[in-house]
Amino acid sequence: MTRDSDTRVLITGVAGFGGSSLAGALLAQGYDVTGLDIAPPSHAGLLRRELSDPGFHYLWKSVQDIQAKDMEGHSVVVHLAAQPDAPLAFESPRYTVMQNIEGTVALLEAVRQAGCVSKLMFAASGNEIGRALYLPIDEEHPLTPHNPYGFSKAAAEMALWAWRLSYGVPSIVMNTGVVVGPNMRREVFIFKWLWNALRGQPIVVEGGKQTRDLVFIDDVVEAWMLVIRAPAEKVAGHKFFVGSGEEYTIEGLARICRDTIGSSVPVEHVGYRPGEEGHREAFSVEKARRTLGYAPKVSPVEAVALTAEWVRSLL
Ligand SMILES: NC(=O)c1ccc[n+]([C@@H]2O[C@H](COP(=O)([O-])OP(=O)(O)OC[C@H]3O[C@@H](n4cnc5c(N)ncnc54)[C@H](O)[C@@H]3O)[C@@H](O)[C@H]2O)c1
Asked: Which of 68, 104, 205, 207 is the most buried (most CB within 10 A)?
């Protein structure tokens, strides 16, 4: 593969779960990657291999300070940098808004001024819907966030629409529910439940009847790669849901985690998080299938099992 601007991808939030997984996949396929993150390189533990790859360049800065010159030579930008934790957003709503909205606007301004970017892909969240008006949720569903994190991501997504309509910034919105797999964030409930079950400690479920669409990281990365490879005119201005298309209750997922480990630890119930009661989530992946050729390979149950193997390796 020639090393021209079509093969140079800028990823914000590269040191995280999604960013490091995508960077590895891109480098393996011959792309050059510029990875921006606020984490110092010495703390970017998920990028151990990538940091020594000649095709990888680490840009240590905040997305809030990104400039047009940082875009030079890149036609594809993937925006993952965020405060991604719904629980933290209850405690720190202003910080979350600043990170997720201001960071996105800073990036949009830089992309607009640079003028060289043909695809700007954004990782949106199922929390932007939260209170589904119908199922399965499709790309026409209005944004109906029910918590501060969901609000911050929905506002960031709306900024993408506004900059596209005002300035023609070619954005693509990729919306996922709960992404699991090796290197996932340890604050996410699936990790905590597997970790507890492996150590003989109770699984604590907040609420229980609310539902989620759970998807394996490799399927998400494949969907992102399909967008990166697609002609800009085919995907720019579009939104795609990327999930398993299956709806699981939270208490059902807790049982799957326990069964996967083969443990008999108790499942304890505590109250719902604010706004969480009534959250239902199952995505229609039809548009992604039709337009991108997206076909998830890993079922939610297999995704939990593959994640459990990794969690076990951490003990
Ligand atoms: N993981 C999921 O289940 C999930 C689901 C839907 C959407 N998303 C979205 O996907 C993206 C990636 O999520 P993740 O799970 O990889 O999170 P993560 O926390 O593992 O990665 C986020 C990265 O962004 C970096 N970052 C934070 N603020 C920054 C800033 N101001 N400037 C530069 N870098 C900054 C962090 O240091 C971190 O490396 C986020 O935008 C998140 O909202 C995640």
From this structure: 104
Instruction: Show the tokens assigned to 167.
Output: 């300035």
**Does 86 map to a domain?**
yes
**Best residue for ligand 1 mutational test, from 12, 20, 37, 160 (most atoms within 8 Å of Cβ):** 37
How many CB atoms neighbour CB 113 within 10 A? 12
HSE, side-chain direction, 13 A CA sphere, residue 165: 6
Residue 95 has pLDDT above 90, yes or no: yes
Q: Are 315 and 199 in contact (CB under 8 A)?
A: yes
pLDDT digit string, tens, across residues 226-250:
999 999 999 999 999 999 999 999 9
Q: What is the pTM of this model?
A: 0.97
A 10 A CB-CB count for 287 gives 17
Q: What is the maximum span of the chain, computed from C-alpha positions, in angstroms? A: 57
The answer to whether residue 187 sits within a structural domain is: no
* Closest-lying ligand 1 atom to the alpha carbon of residue 180: 3
Helices (H), the chain: 17-28, 48-51, 68-71, 86-91, 93-97, 103-114, 148-167, 189-198, 217-229, 232-235, 250-261, 286-292, 300-313
Given a contact cutoff of 8 angstroms between Cβ atoms, the answer to whether 83 and 60 are in contact is no
> How many angstroms does the Cα of residue 75 sit away from the middle of ligand 1?
21
**Number of structural domains the chain divides into:** 1
Give the structural domain span for 224.
Answer: 5-180+214-245+281-296
Residue 270 lies in a domain: no
CATH number of the domain that residue 44 is part of: 3.40.50.720
Tell me which of 125, 187, 213 to substitute to probe ligand 1's pocket, judged by most ligand atoms within 8 Å of the beta carbon: 125
146 within domain boundaries: yes
- Within 13 Å of residue 266, how many CA atoms lie on the same side as its CB? 3
